[in-house]
Amino acid sequence: MSQYVSRLGSTRTAARLRFPGGFSGASRKPRRIAMLSVHTSPLHQPGTGDAGGMNVYIVELARRLAAIDIEVEIFTRATTGSLAPAVELAPGVLVRHVDAGPYEGLAKEDLPAQLCAFTHGVMQAWAGQRPGYYDLVHSHYWLSGQVGWLAAQRWGVPLVHAMHTMAKVKNASLAKGDTPEPPARVIGETQIVNASDRLIANTAEEADELVRFYDADPAAVAVVHPGVNLDRFRPADGRAAARARLGLPQDALVPLFAGRIQPLKAPDVLLRAVAVLLDRDPSLRSRIVVPVVGGPSGSGLAKPEGLQKLAARLGIADVVRFHPPVGQDRLADWFRAASVLVMPSYSESFGLVAIEAQAAGTPVVAASVGGLPVAVRDGVSGFLVQGHEPEAYARALGRFADAPELVGRMGAAAAAHAQSFGWDTAASATADVYTAALCDHRRRARTHHG
Predict the structure, then answer these.
(1) How is 145-156 classified by DSSP, letter by letter?
(2) pTM above 0.70, yes or no
């Protein structure tokens, strides 16, 4: 991580040396940014459709940026005709709904064909404002990056982009039977990397992947860990009270899966691991409950009942409980109630859910992929598992079954670990990235015109 952060730091130092007495003109912290989230609205319920960690990321980041006097306008695709053109999400945060294609029935894979219409809507909103209304564009995910590339160029402002996930990385570690990301996405992401003034990576590993897979300029990549809402996700009144509220037995082993149900997230690995565990120790059946909280998404929509059928085939349908996606406050209760959160994902740019669970005082068993080794302190706040063999996850879960006191001990360490991932820190670091991008952009413009 240090090479990326230090390079960003040196850029800021250079900026201060060039402009003694602070930044001049546009080369300062931005006043207002246009944030782009084409395929998923910050107003949608995480865990449904294509809504997930990125929704939480955008909402929390925008709120915290507004709190440090950076206004945020989030452009997203309208998915129902009843939505107002603009909705205030929080003071200083406006969500603008753009008409682009039919409101319903469009899959994420259909959206590239609507990017022209979406760009038109963004340009219309901008045309109604005074010149220089937006200081910077921050796009999320490659679909938004395509729009951001054009908008930033048209407005003469910097483009900051966050990939969230990358096609080449996902395709390098596909779940069995999952659909590869299409070549069009790879091309689109490559274009965005070349067009962006700054790329924000969640972890040092993601920064390395941008350089390795997409030939990104290391000096343009900044590592900013996502945050967690520490007011919402906290141990609160403890595991026993949360279990009472959710109707869970007090003495049960509760390995929880929370997230979108799709091959990438590998909830099937948890179910197979539980089957292995019960084969080894049949007595555990009377004191284990396995909640799966979330809805089918992406390639998981092809077989929405697939996980229920798998539970029946494995002979564990009696211990698995399926729950639809829940709001953030209720999700925090599920985290508190669980003995352990299980994240066997094939790919995670960060794994926000892992930090949320730990902040609520719950240890995590996770695949050692992507950002999860940053999110989870192996052996301290949980266990990292190499690969996706159910037996390996069964061994990790068996440790909590054999030593129930491990839940409390690791849970306390998990809550302490999560304290360093507050959103205020993430917003402050993101604002620094914006300032550096503005400074570089301003300097290039002067050189070009000088």
Answers:
(1) HHHHHHHHHHHT
(2) yes
